[in-house]
Specification:
With 1219 residues, this protein is α+β, with helices and mostly antiparallel strands. Among the domains are: 157 residues, Methylamine Dehydrogenase, Chain H, CATH 2.130.10.10; 54 residues, no CATH class; 94 residues, no CATH class; 62 residues, no CATH class; 115 residues, no CATH class; 155 residues, no CATH class. It has 44 helices and 23 strands. The strands form seven sheets. Strands 1-19-18-17 form a four-stranded antiparallel beta sheet. Strands 2-3-4-5 form a four-stranded antiparallel beta sheet, with no helix packed on it. A hairpin with a 3-residue loop joins strand 14 and strand 15. Helix 13 crosses helix 14, helix 20 packs across helix 22 and helix 41 packs parallel to helix 43. The N terminus and C terminus are likely disordered. Belongs to the VPS8 family. InterPro entries: TPR_VPS8_2, Vps41/Vps8, Vps8_central_dom, WD40/YVTN_repeat-like_dom_sf, WD40_repeat_dom_sf.
C-alpha cells in the first residue's frame, strides 16, 4: 500500500478530476472517458491539472516519440510514461476497470477545489495524515501502496449546496452514492462528483439522530435507523417524506404477542436491504435483537410485517482481504496467509461516532462512545471511505501495476524494473492485487511486462532526445555526469535477466547500446561482479574478450585471472587468455584454461615442469657463480618462479583424485578417467616425451644442463628432486583413489612403487629423498596388500634404510613407517634390527617388542631414554612395569630390574625429583638412602624437594603443580631418622617460617626433639627452639631461659647493627627485629597456654610472666643505653647522625611495642585469680631497680576493660638514655 508519507506503507488514493461511480444498469456514465483505461491512466500519470477538469485525449501526441527521462534531474515529459503505460496497460485495464470507476469521478476540477480550500476554516481542518488536501493528481509515492487522501464531501460543500441546519454527520453509507446521516435525523445524499442530490428527512416525525444507514443495490432507496428505535425508508426521487416508516414498539405490546419490533429507546446499530428488494430490510439494535421487516402495501395501505430473527454467525470466505482499524493505523490483512500486507498511520479519533452525543446524559460512557466508529468506515469496490469530523475521505489499494507506475511517475525507471523483478521472484512487499494467484501464471504476466519495461527504459536512456535535451546542461556549461544512471541500468537489468533466466536482452540489446555510444567500459565493470559471484556463468565470448582486455590495458592481471576462474570456460577467447596468462605468469588461470576450456590436463604439467627446471638451473648457477659475477642470480629473482613451480603438486593431487584445480570441484567421471590416464602416463613414462603430440611438438627436457643426458623416468625424478616430500604426499592421495584399483590401466600402484625402488637404487640420490621414498613404500605396503607385493629382501632393505638414517627431524615419521611395515613383514636378524632400532631411537617399537618378550629391564630403559615422553607418562609407565615385573616374579621385584632401577636413579632424578620420591617410596623404599647419596652430589634444594614429598605436610604442596598424588595423610614411615632430621635442617634453610607448622604436623615420636632443638638453634630458628622446648617437653622455664638468652644475643646484634653503614644497617635491623617478633610470639603463646592450664599455681604462672617481661625489658634497656651513649658523643647537626638517630628511634619503638603486646596478651589471657597484677608490677619494678642499670620511665596508664580487677592496670615502658 502506498503511504501518505514516504516512509509509510499505506496512503490514500489521489483525486481524479471526475469519476462516475454509478452502478445503475443501463445508465450512461457521465464521464466521457469511462471505461477508457488509457485515458484514466493518463489522468493518474499526468503532471498537470487542466483548468476545465478535462484531460487531453492524447491524439496529438506522437506515438513514435523518444523515451524521455522524468526524474528529479529532468523536465517532466510524457513520452516515457506513455510507453510504460503501453507496457502495463491492456491486461491491467481489464482487471482494474471496476476499481478505477470510483477514481474517475471523485474530484471537482482544481479551480473549484482551490475555492473550497480558500473558504475553509483552518481550525476545521483535521491534522490526520488522511486529511491532506493537496490538489495534485499524481499517483502515490513509490514507498507506499495506498493513494494519497481525497476529500469526497466536506462541511463547506454541504453548506454551499444550500442545506441549512443539517446537523453534524454521524454515519456513512457509500455504494454508488455517498449517504451521510446526521444528528438531526436527516440524510444527505451526494454523488461522487460531490453534488448534493437530495436531503432525506421527515419534518413531521421526531426520530432522533441517525445511527445506521443503508443504500439499496440499485441506488434508489435509502434506509435509516435512529437512536430512538425508529426506522425510515426514503425514495431518493421523493426525499421529503419517507416511503415507509417503522415506529418502535413497547414492551407491553411485545409481551402480549400483538406486535414485534425494536423497543422504544433501543438504538438501531445496523440496517441493510435484503437482496435486490427495496422494501425488505433487516435491522439490529443495541440490545442484541434483530428483525426482518417486509414493508409492503396492500390496496395502497401500508402492510408492514416484522419478524424477530435468530442471528447465527457463519464463516465467510468471500473476501481475501480484510480492513482493520486500530487507534493509530489502518491495516489490511490477507485472509489466506494471516499476514499484514498493507498499513498506514491513521488517527482513529478523527472519525465520527453516532452516539457521542449520548455521553452528555450519562447513558453511555465517553470511552465506549468515542470508539464506536464502525459506521464511519465503509468499503466499496476496493475503495475505503472514512467519515471524519469535517469531511469524508476515500482511499484505494494500489495494484502491482499502480505501484510500478508510481516509480514511473517520479521518473525512476530503475526502481520500476527492480520492483517488477521483486514481484516476479515473489519477495515484493505489500499486496499482490491484480496478479494471478498461480505462480506460473503470475510469472508469465510479470515476466513479459518486465522484459518490455527493460526494452522501453533502454531505448529512452539512449534516445537522441535523452542525449541532447536540457537534462545534460548545467549552469556552468560542463554538463551532467550520468555515470550512476548508466551503471544502475546495467545492474538492474542484470538482476532482472537473472530472475528471468534469459540473458539475450542483456548481452545483445543492452550491450549494443553501451558499445554504440562508447561507454562499454561501464557495462563491463558493472557486469563483472555478477560473474564473480557466480550469478552469471555464461557471457558471450565477444564480451568476455573485451572484459579481459580491459584489465590487461589497466595492467591488472590479478583481476583478469580472477575473472577467468569464475567464468564458463566456453566463454573465453582461448588464445587471448593463454597469452595473457603466460605474459603475466598467471599459472592458476592458465591451468584453468587448459583443463576446463581445452580439456588438456598434460599441458599444465609441461608448463610447471619447465618452471621446476628453471629453478634447478637458477640454483645450480647460483651455487657455481660468485656473488659478484654477472651470472649470479638473486633470491628475489628466483622466488616468484619457485612459488609458481610448487603449484604442480596441488595440481597433481587434484587431477589424480578427480577434482578441478584450483576450485576442487568434481570432474565429470569420463573426463576424470581420461585426465588421470593422461597424467599418469606422462609422469611415469620411462623417457622424455614430445608435447604436444603431433606436428609442432617439442621435447620436454629435465636436465639442468642444456643438451644434457636425460635419465630414465625423467619427470618422476625431477618431481622427487625438487621436493620429494610434496611429490610423495601427492602419490599418497592418488593411491587412495579407486582409479588405481583397476590394474588394466597402464600405470598401477605396483608399477609406481617399482619405479620408486629403481630410483631409490640410483647412486647419488640424496639421503633425505631416499628416506621419504622408504617412508612412502613402508606405509603403503600394508594399506594395499592385494595390489603391492614385494620380496622380503626388498622389504628388509627398506626397514634397514628407515633405521640407519640419523636425521632427528624425520625420526618420528621413520618410526611410524617402520611400524606400518612391521605389521605386514616379520624381519630376520632380530638382534641386529633391535640394535639398529635402539640407535635410531625407535622406542615405541622397542617397547612393544620388549613387553611381548617380558624383558622388563630393557623395557624400563626405553621409557627413560625416550625424549618424546612427558615426565608423568614416564613415571606412570615405570610404576606399571615394576608392578608387572613383581607380579610375574611371585610378588618380588627381579634382581636385574632392581639393579637397573638403582643404576638409573640419577636419570630418574633428572626427570623429576618428587616423582622419583613417590616411585621409590611406593615400590622400593629401601633405596631412599641410596637416593640421598646420589642427591649429595646435587644441590640442597633437590634434597629438600625429595624429603618434602616424603615428610612434608600437605600445605607445602598447595602452590605446587604437577606433583604426584600422595595417598597417605602423614609422613612416610620408610624414612630413616637421619633423613628426618635433615629435612628439618633443610626446611630451616629454605623456609624458616614454616618450621613450627611442620613440627606441629609431624607425630610426637617421629623426631628426636633434642636434636631438633639443636638444629633449630644452629640455624637461628629461635621461635622453633622455644616452641619445641615447651610444646614437646612441657618445660616452660627452660624455654623462657632460652628466650632470655636469645634476647641478650639479639639485643647485642641490634646494637652492633646500629653502628653499621645505612644499607647494611636496614637489612640487619629488619632481620633481628623480625627474629625478636617471632621469639615473642612463641614465648607469649607458651605463657598463655601455661596460664590457662589448671595444674599450675598462682606463683608459678606469675613467675613465668615475670621472667618473660624482665627479659624483654632488659633487651629494651640494653639497646637504649647504647643509643644514649652514641647520641651524647656525636654532633646532632651531622646528617649522618640524624639518619642514625631516626634508625635508633624506630628500633626503640619496635622493641617497646613488643613489650606492650606482651602486656596485652597477659591481660587478655590471664584471670584475676591466676595472676596478681599489683604484685607482678611491684616485683617487676623491684627487679629492675635492683639491677642498678636501668631507670624507671614514666608509666602510661590504660584500662583493661575486659579484665575484672579492683586495681587500675598500667602498661610499663622501661628504657634509659634519652627516653
Amino acid at each position: 500500500m502506498n503511504g501518505v508519507r514516504q516512509q509509510e506503507d499505506v496512503a490514500i488514493s489521489p483525486p481524479q478530476d471526475d469519476l462516475d461511480l454509478s452502478d445503475l444498469e443501463g445508465e450512461e456514465s457521465q464521464d466521457d472517458h469511462a471505461g477508457d483505461y488509457s485515458t484514466r491512466l493518463e489522468e493518474l500519470m499526468s503532471d498537470e491539472e487542466h483548468s476545465d477538469g478535462q484531460h487531453e485525449t492524447g491524439d496529438d501526441e506522437d506515438e513514435d516519440a523518444g523515451f524521455f527521462y522524468t526524474g528529479a534531474d529532468a523536465e517532466p515529459v510524457g513520452t516515457y510514461r506513455d510507453q510504460l503505460r503501453d507496457v502495463l496497460g491492456p491486461d491491467h485495464e481489464l482487471e482494474e476497470q471496476d476499481e478505477r470507476e470510483v477514481e474517475n469521478s471523485l474530484v471537482h476540477d482544481v479551480e473549484e477545489k482551490e475555492r473550497f480550500e480558500s473558504t475553509m476554516d483552518d481550525e476545521a481542518r483535521p491534522t490526520d495524515m488522511l486529511s491532506d488536501r493537496s490538489p495534485t493528481t499524481s499517483s502515490a509515492s513509490p514507498s507506499g501502496y495506498l493513494t494519497p487522501p481525497r476529500i469526497v464531501v466536506s462541511t463547506e460543500s454541504i453548506l454551499s449546496a444550500g442545506a441549512p441546519s443539517v446537523g453534524s454527520p454521524t454515519v456513512l453509507a457509500a455504494n454508488g452514492l455517498v449517504c451521510l446521516g446526521t444528528n438531526t435525523g436527516k440524510i444527505l445524499v451526494f454523488d461522487f462528483k460531490q453534488n448534493l442530490k437530495c436531503v432525506c428527512h421527515s419534518p413531521d416525525n421526531v426520530v432522533g439522530p441517525v445511527t445506521a444507514l443503508a443504500l439499496s443495490y440499485d441506488h434508489t432507496y435509502v434506509a435509516s435507523g435512529h437512536a430512538s428505535g425508529h426506522i425510515q425508508l426514503f425514495d431518493i426521487n421523493s426525499p421529503k417524506t419517507p416511503a415507509r416508516f417503522v415506529p418502535p414498539t413497547t414492551l407491553a405490546a411485545v409481551a402480549s404477542g400483538r406486535q414485534e419490533g425494536h423497543l422504544v429507546g433501543s438504538r438501531i446499530v445496523s440496517i441493510g436491504f435484503v437482496a435486490g428488494r427495496h422494501t425488505a430490510i433487516v435491522s439490529a439494535d443495541d440490545s442484541g435483537l434483530a428483525f426482518y421487516h417486509s414493508l409492503g402495501k396492500v390496496l395502497f395501505v401500508e402492510a408492514s410485517d416484522t419478524l424477530r430473527i435468530l442471528v447465527t454467525e457463519a464463516d465467510s470466505f468471500l473476501h481475501q482481504q480484510v480492513l482493520v482499524l486500530t487507534s493509530t493505523t489502518l491495516e489490511v490483512y490477507d485472509i489466506r496467509t494471516f499476514k499484514l500486507v498493507e498499513h498506514v498511520l491513521f488517527d482513529a479519533w478523527s472519525l465520527m461516532s453516532p452516539i457521542l452525543a449520548h455521553t452528555t446524559n450519562g447513558s453511555i460512557s465517553y470511552p465506549d462512545a468515542v470508539t464506536e466508529v464502525a459506521h464511519s468506515v465503509r468499503v466499496y469496490k476496493g475503495k475505503i471511505f472514512l467519515l471524519g469530523q469535517t469531511e469524508v475521505l476515500v482511499g484505494t489499494l494500489l495494484t502491482w501495476a499502480d505501484r510500478i507506475l508510481s516509480f514511473v511517475e517520479s521518473g525512476d525507471f530503475l526502481s520500476a524494473i527492480e520492483l517488477t523483478r521483486s514481484y516476479y521472484v515473489g519477495d515484493a512487499p505489500g499486496n499482490r492485487n491484480g496478479l494471478p494467484d498461480g505462480r506460473d501464471e503470475m510469472r508469465e504476466v510479470v515476466g513479459d511486462k518486465m522484459h518490455e519495461l527493460m526494452v522501453a527504459s533502454a531505448h529512452y536512456a539512449f534516445s537522441e532526445e535523452r542525449m541532447t535535451d536540457e537534462t545534460h546542461i548545467t549552469p556552468d556549461g560542463r554538463g551532467v555526469d550520468r555515470t550512476s544512471l548508466f551503471e544502475g541500468l546495467v545492474v538492474t537489468c542484470a538482476r532482472a535477466c537473472i530472475a528471468l533466466n534469459d540473458f539475450e536482452f542483456l548481452f545483445e540489446d543492452l550491450y549494443s547500446h553501451y558499445d554504440y555510444h562508447g561507454i562499454a567500459r561501464i557495462f563491463l565493470l558493472q557486469l563483472e561482479p555478477f560473474v564473480l559471484d557466480g550469478k552469471i556463468h555464461y557471457v558471450p565470448p565477444r564480451i568476455t574478450q573485451k572484459l579481459v582486455a580491459l584489465h590487461d590495458e589497466n595492467n591488472r592481471p590479478d583481476l583478469a585471472e580472477r575473472l577467468i576462474w569464475h567464468i564458463d570456460p566456453d566463454c573465453l577467447d582461448i588464445n587471448q587468455a593463454i597469452t595473457l596468462c603466460q605474459n603475466y605468469q598467471l599459472y592458476d588461470a592458465l591451468i584453468y584454461i587448459y583443463t576446463r576450456a581445452m580439456r588438456d590436463y598434460v599441458s599444465p604439467v609441461v608448463e610447471l615442469l619447465g618452471l621446476i627446471r628453471r629453478v634447478q638451473q637458477y640454483r645450480r648457477t647460483r651455487a657455481e657463480a660468485s656473488p659478484s659475477s654477472k651470472q649470479f642470480v638473486s633470491e628475489d629473482t628466483i622466488e616468484p618462479v619457485v612459488l609458481n613451480a610448487y603449484k604442480i603438486y596441488p595440481y597433481l593431487s587434484d587431477v589424480l583424485t578427480g577434482l578441478t584445480y584450483p576450485s576442487e570441484e568434481p570432474i565429470p567421471e569420463d573426463e576424470a578417467l581420461q585426465a588421470k590416464n593422461d597424467v599418469y602416463t606422462f609422469i611415469f613414462f620411462g623417457r622424455s616425451s614430445v608435447w604436444p603430440i603431433g606436428e609442432g611438438g617439442k621435447l620436454v627436457l629435465t636436465s639442468d644442463e642444456e643438451n644434457g643426458v636425460e635419465p630414465t623416468y625423467p619427470y618422476a625424478r625431477l618431481l622427487l628432486r625438487y621436493d620429494a616430500e610434496a611429490f610423495l604426499h601427492t602419490l599418497d592421495l592418488a593411491f587412495e583413489d579407486h582409479y588405481l584399483n583397476d590394474e588394466t590401466h597402464g600405470v598401477s600402484r605396483l608399477v609406481m612403487v617399482k619405479i620408486l625402488v629403481e630410483i631409490l637404487s640410483t647412486p647419488g640420490l640424496p639421503q633425505s629423498d631416499a628416506t621419504f621414498i622408504n617412508i612412502f613404500i613402508a606405509r603403503n605396503i600394508p594399506k594395499y596388500p592385494q595390489f603391492i607385493q614385494m620380496t622380503p629382501s626388498a622389504l628388509h632393505s627398506i626397514l634397514i634404510g628407515l633405521a640407519e638414517d640419523e636425521d632427528e627431524n624425520t625420526r618420528e615419521d621413520r618410526q611410524l613407517a617402520a611400524e606400518f611395515l612391521l605389521s605386514a613383514y616379520t624381519p630376520h636378524e632380530s638382534d641386529r634390527i633391535l640394535h639398529l632400532f635402539e640407535q635410531a631411537g625407535f622406542y615405541r617399537i622397542l617397547r612393544r617388542w620388549h613387553r611381548q618378550e617380558r624383558q622388563w629391564s630393557p623395557l624400563f630403559m626405553t621409557y627413560l631414554e625416550d625424549p618424546d615422553l612427558r615426565s608423568s607418562e614416564i613415571f606412570t609407565s615405570v610404576d606399571e612395569i615394576l608392578s608387572t615385573a613383581s607380579r610375574f616374579n611371585k610378588g618380588v621385584l627381579p634382581p636385574e630390574v632392581l639393579t637397573t632401577v638403582t643404576n638409573s636413579l640419577d636419570s630418574l632424578l633428572d626427570i623429576d625429583v618428587s616423582s622419583t620420591a613417590a616411585l621409590v617410596d611406593k615400590r622400593i623404599p629401601r633405596l631412599h638412602e641410596q637416593v640421598m647419596q646420589v642427591l649429595r652430589g646435587r644441590t640442597s634444594h633437590d634434597r629438600f624437594v625429595y624429603l618434602r614429598y616424603l615428610i612434608g605436610s600437605p600445605r607445602l604442596f598447595e602452590d605446587s603443580e604437577h606433583l604426584p598424588y600422595r595417598d597417605r595423610t602423614g609422613p612416610s614411615p620408610h624414612i630413616p631418622a637421619g633423613m628426618r632430621l635433615e629435612y628439618i635442617s633443610l626446611l630451616g634453610q629454605s623456609d624458616p617460617t614454616a618450621v613450627i607448622h611442620e613440627l606441629e604436623y609431624l607425630p610426637q615420636d617421629f623426631l628426636d626433639w633434642q636434636e631438633v632443638v639443636n638444629s633449630c638453634e644452629e640455624h637461628e630458628i629461635y621461635d622453633a627452639v622455644i616452641w619445641s622446648l615447651y610444646w614437646r617437653g612441657d618445660d616452660l622455664n627452660t624455654a623462657l631461659s632460652k628466650t632470655e638468652a636469645f634476647h641478650e644475643l639479639l639485643s647485642d646484634n641490634i646494637a652492633r647493627s646500629l653502628d653499621t653503614p645505612e644499607v647494611e644497617r636496614d637489612l640487619e635491623l629488619d632481620k633481628y627485629l623480625s627474629a625478636m617478633r617471632s621469639i615473642q610470639n612463641a614465648a607469649v603463646s607458651a605463657c598463655v597456654q601455661y596460664s590457662n592450664a589448671a595444674s599450675h599455681g598462682e606463683a608459678s604462672t606469675e613467675d613465668m610472666w615475670l621472667k618473660l617481661l624482665k627479659s624483654q625489658i632488659g633487651c629494651v634497656h640494653r639497646v637504649s643505653l647504647f643509643c644514649s651513649k652514641r647520641i651524647a658523643k656525636e654532633s646532632k647537626s651531622d646528617p649522618l647522625v640524624t639518619a642514625q638517630a631516626q634508625a635508633e628511634e624506630q628500633t626503640m619503638v619496635s622493641l617497646r611495642s613488643l613489650v606492650q603486646d606482651t602486656f596485652t596478651s597477659l591481660m587478655s589471657a590471664s584471670s584475676s585469680r591466676a595472676v596478681s597484677f599489683p604484685r607482678l608490677f611491684k616485683r617487676l619494678v623491684d627487679s629492675v631497680a635492683n639491677s642498678r642499670t636501668a631507670k624507671v620511665l614514666p608509666l602510661k596508664r590504660r584500662h583493661a576493660g575486659d579484665h575484672k580487677t579492683p586495681h587500675r592496670q598500667r602498661c610499663l615502658y622501661f628504657g634509659g638514655g634519652n627516653d
